[in-house]
Amino acid sequence: MDSVFLNKAAAAVLLSIATAWICSAVGSTVVPITAPAKPAFSVPGTENVPIAPYMAHADADHGEELAHQICSSCHALVSAASDGVGPNLAGVAGRPRASITGYAYSSALAGQKAHVWSDQALSDWLTSPARFAPGTRMSLVGISSPAQRADIIAYLHTLAE
């Protein structure tokens, strides 16, 4: 290979990159990125519903079974236990969000330190963690049944720090 060929190849690569960048800049100027004012559709079971009526009939024993099935693979459910992949859930009900020292929360939750984990907030979180805090690292898709969420929240109330 001679230097003329290498110069032509380098020029082709640089011009391709410059052309792609210019096309991207012009495209984003001409077609602005906008979100619709109202979603086109909603997946059933992912709407945030008031949890208070379900909490009146919540079963903490059933919530314990559900929490051990769903939550215990990533979270500790015992006071003074070390954090797992997720933070320890002992005392989470009523605790400020992202408040366990030493646990590296995602920026999605770290920005919510001024808020408290109320029953409604816990329910909204369990409905869809990704929608509640976009960018969260929690991989749970969500729990669609409000009765099951209420049972889990009732169980979380029994866990003391």
From TrEMBL:
Pfam families: Cytochrom_C (PF00034). This is Cytochrome C. The keyword Heme applies. Residues 58-160 form the Cytochrome c domain. The keyword Transmembrane helix does not apply. Keywords: Electron transport, Heme, Iron, Metal-binding, Signal, Transport. It comes from Acetobacter tropicalis. SUPFAM superfamilies: Cytochrome c (SSF46626). PANTHER family: CYTOCHROME C (PTHR11961). Gene3D superfamilies: Cytochrome c-like domain. InterPro entries: Cyt_c-like_dom (IPR009056), Cyt_c-like_dom_sf (IPR036909), Cyt_c_1A/1B (IPR002327). Residues 1-25 form the signal peptide. One of its GO terms (molecular function) is metal ion binding.
